[in-house]
Amino acid sequence: MTTITITRAGPLATLQDQGRYGVLAHGISASGPTVNSAFHEAGGLLETPGTTGIEFTSAGLAFTVDGPLRAAAAGGDFSLSVNGDRREWPATLALAAGDGVDVAPGSAGNYGYLRFERELDVPALLGSRSTNLAVGLGGYRGRALKAGDQIAFGALGTIGKAELAAPSQPGPIRFTWGVHADQIPRDVRERFTQAGFLVSTRLDRMGVRLEDPEGVFTSLRQLSLVSEAIVVGDIQILGDGTPVVLMRDHQPTGGYPRIATIVSVDFDRFAQMRPGSTVHFQSVVPGHRR
């Protein structure tokens, strides 16, 4: 049975499948790949992709194999090599015993994916092998991968054509107005659609904090709200005026106002925006003001 050994893992490298749906009421978000389109792209490069892959961050990942294995890599723009020999990106790899794969930082993207022709031999918990770092559930011992971890493979994946998500068009990140938008002054809502925000260095699978250089939310009074269920892509405004976009491992409920929710077709593009990138937001209904 082929096994991979992790020799280097950047922060937040985790095992992910399609996600753990139906348990949010119990305080557990669905998790799954942060960038669904890239996860599916990697799977589409294999004839029998396993349901579970490795999500890695911009710092990359490296591993060795002790037996034959087909793998595929996609997402963002990374530097890939096998035994020191440079490969194209994205890529399909036919690996042999003793091969070493190194994914190094590249020019674009926060997340990349490795998919394999076989299932990773880790238990499914609550119907999924996805890692939820917020609650320490699933994946490899409920945590991020680190050097020295060894993961075996089981049966071949399912033969079938991967479903690829429609590519997002360049431009502003589109949104629908959130459940609390009516409680936010009209002029603040208008400035939200006109200003530029910066992706901060404070980002992970729970949320991405945005810098607000134009001070759109600095004067917003703190709203007293009952904690309510939240969804992926919600944009919360914290008590100090910091906007936060909620990601795949988001908390189940939140008591901060949610001005908007990023539409699913643009969520992947937002997730790949690196720290320092400028992001503009646009309502899906042109010219609409609540």
Q: How many helices does DSSP assign?
A: 3
In the predicted model, the low-confidence regions spanning at least 5 consecutive residues are: none
Portion of residues in helices?
A: under 10%
For the sheet with most strands, the description reads:
8 strands, mixed
What's the order of the H and E elements?
A: EEHEEEEEEEEEEEHEEEEEEEHEE
Distance between the termini: 59 Å
Rg computed from alpha carbons, rounded to a whole number of angstroms: 20 Å
* Overall pLDDT score: 92
What topology, given as strand order, has the largest sheet?
21-14-15-18-17-20-13-22
Q: How many strand units?
A: 22
Percent of sequence in beta strands: 35-45%
Structural class: mainly beta
Shape designation: elongated
Characteristics of this structure?
3 helices, mainly beta, single chain, 7-stranded antiparallel β-sheet
